[in-house]
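Following up on my earlier thread - several people asked me to post the actual chain instead of describing it. Fair enough. Here it is, all 445 residues.
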Amino acid sequence: MSQSTLPFEHVSRRDLLKLGAGAGVLGPLALAASTPAQAVNTNARIIIVGAGAGGTAMANRLTRALNGAQITIVDRRERHHYQPGWTLVASGVWSASKAITQTADWLPRSVNWVKGMVAEYDPDTNRIRLDDGQTLEYDYLIVASGLQLRYERIQGMDVNLIGQGKGIGSVYASIEAAAATNTEIDRWIRQGSGTGLFTLAPTAIKCAGAPLKMTFTTLSRLEATGRRDAYNVEFMTPSGGLFSQPQVHAFVRQRFEEQQVTRNDFYTLKAIDADAKRATFSVRDQADVTRDYDFLHVVPPMTAPDALLNSPLRFQEGPFVDWMEVNRETLQNERYPNVWGIGDVMGMALNKTAASVKMQAGVLEQNFVAHLQGRPLPARHNGYTSCPLITGIGKAMLVEFGWADNMAMMPSFSFIDPMAESWTAWVMKDRMLRPAYYAMLEGRI
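Reply from S.P.:
Thanks for posting it. Predicted structure:
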């Protein structure tokens, strides 16, 4: 689809207002009112590891669903980051301050906040040990620790290089790194020409659409100069895939052809010489290839945090050995039934987005409360995820899908074509998703 035929005009203002606070972007609303009408009485000791999206949502939901529970949340971070906004910061659309709030603002007052990080899980004795040596005991454990960025697996890569005039950017490292990535892209654009290399990681990653968003928003900025032909843009894919949903993969492939983006399939970033601005890639069935660059967007490999990887809670075999073991539908660890997971830490397809967390939070609340009462687990996660895929500054696609039927689309809004770029989807990403996310943190949707 050419940019001149974007279907912006087919969505009315009335349709846009139907989106309300944008809650649908964070998942179907069927589970929005999942809190029991009457709270369950219990004196259970519940520990939630992580005060990110999943952990905070569960702290609020369980505070309302349970009477008498002793809920503790473990996380050192004083600031809460709205990570879906980081691509907008790195693209120069948002200031960094729009994506930062205080962790304390979202936690219920009745929850005990322990400011530390888990160093060891011991599910056989129902204990965790923190990095300060403190030991905490639990009856039930919810792991919402997020994941670990493995920049150290790329030789010569250091997050301190981001935005320092050496051509390196990475939206994932931190909110500061996202802002520095924008600075580095600006520097490349002012240079007037050169090569930009955009990478993917050989592992599962959070917000799998972010590398594409960074490529498309950068293309918009290059095109705005009126000198697009002076810039060479290339995209490196370790697997040959661009997006897990087949229709979207085909769309991106075609759009890259239209916008003259060179694809390099089966290229994995291996090493960086930042001073020389050279990147080395391992290439399947070929010798390593070293390329010069003027801008390099680094997407690091990702795994569960070390404490989880060194514990019995990780998958022992199969494709998810670098992640927490859970039943992908119930979110329960089947070897330790008093242990549950939510969010990026879990080993399953399609779960590393805020939209996935919203869906999982409703499932986990229902199943957790049922398990506490000795009842069968009533809810099932269907793999739902959503990606407001930015295809240029001012336009996006609202892509929603799940595990079933070859990752078939699961649209929340009948008036939005998931395969059409629109201003409406851009507005949802730019203005509506953040308040919906905060409603999710509070357990209201």
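The first strand starts at residue 40 and ends at 41. That should answer part of your original question.
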